[in-house]
Amino acid sequence: xxxxxxxxxxxxxxxxxxxxxxxxxxxxxxxxxxxxxxxxxxxxxxxxxxxxxxxxxxxxxxxxxxxxxxxxxxxxxxxxxxxxxxxxxxxxxxxxxxxxxxxxxxxxxxxxxxxxxx
Length: 118
Fold this sequence. Notes:
The structure is a single chain. This protein has 118 residues and is of the alpha+beta class. Helices cover 36% and strands 19% of the residues.
C-alpha cells in the first residue's frame, strides 16, 4: 500500500503576508489561490485560510480539511519551489467536494503550478 503524501505547510504569518502582497492571484467561485516563488528552498509549501466570517470552528475546520485533502492528492504533481495559499470564499463552505476539487485543479493549472518534480 502506498504511503500518503504529507503536505509541507506555511506556519509563519510573515510568509502569508508576503504571498498576499507580492504573489500572483487567481480566483474562482469557491476559492482564491495566491502563489509566490520560494527562492530560499526547493520545496512547495501550502497554506489554507478560512476566515471567521465563514462560520464557527466546526465549519471552518471541515472546509479546511476538504481543501487540504484535495491538495494532498494533487501535491505530487505540483512544481517545486512555490508558496501556495488557498483562501476559501463563503460559497466554499456549502460546495460539494467535486466542485472544490475541479475548481482548485483549474486554478492551479491557470497559475501554471503543475509540472514535474525533480
